[in-house]
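Input/output pair, single chain:
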Amino acid sequence: MAKSLPVSKRMVWESYLKVIAKQGGAGNDRESIEMFNAKRNSNLYKIWNRMTSGSYFPPAVRTVFIPKKQGGLRPLGIPTVSDRIAQGVVKDYLEPMMENIFHPSTFGYRPGKSAHDALTQCHENCIKYGWVVDVDIKGFFDNINHDMLMQLLGHHTKEKFVLLYAERWLKAGVEQEDGSIVARTKGTPQGGVISPLLANLYLHHAFDKWMDKENPGNPFERYADDVVIHCSSKEEAEQLLKRLRERMRIAELTLHPEKTKIVYCKNYQRKGEHEHESFTFLGYSFHLRAMQDKFGRKGVFQVFG
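Output:
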């Protein structure tokens, strides 16, 4: 095939610099960054050559398990060094246009935004609103519908190499603990370079835009799939949660039945009257405390690591 896809050597080089800056482990080929660098120029040329001709096919991702803060293990899919560079090429091309449309209240995996920004906004909204819907999407990264995601991506770009390789990364196999390779029919692996951007795109349409259209009076914070929604009353929170469950069903996602809950966060004098008076967001616990903040307001949430 004649080289027709607009992937330049500079795009590959700039992605390479970002990958080596972050270090990271070897993929299923067990090639470390040091091993890659031993034949750097040849390896980078190979990536560029294949990406420009449409003949780049990503290898299976290596699965490693890391402990969750709440207990249990979280699977991470580790691409090879070469594949991380290839993914970075597409991410660097796609990210600026996505940043132009992403919601200001989403903070995860975005340039110029941080978990601290999300926590600060969450605390400010807890002062203003009496109720919180603490949202947990069950196995979000593992359940993203590939066809829906590709349709959404195609809505924002017609660039052939972006669509071609995004679909191949979604379908790339997953290495199991016994070394076997299993095909993936849904989901995108946590640990990939392109995965957070694609995941944000999915929830931008499934959640963020829906919130703006259907629930404009309810501010929220979203960090990837970790979401907090603020409401003025328990009844409002209950109705919103009911609608949100249906919205997630349409997106082929499910809210975790135990971890998703409505939390009361306003009047400290009524402490103890409600089932839930704390929630965790980004590893920090928000607890109702009988205290005054610096503005003299009582019954606001305190944040504890």
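The two ends are 55 Å apart (CA to CA). Confidence is low (pLDDT under 50) at residues 268-273, 290-301.
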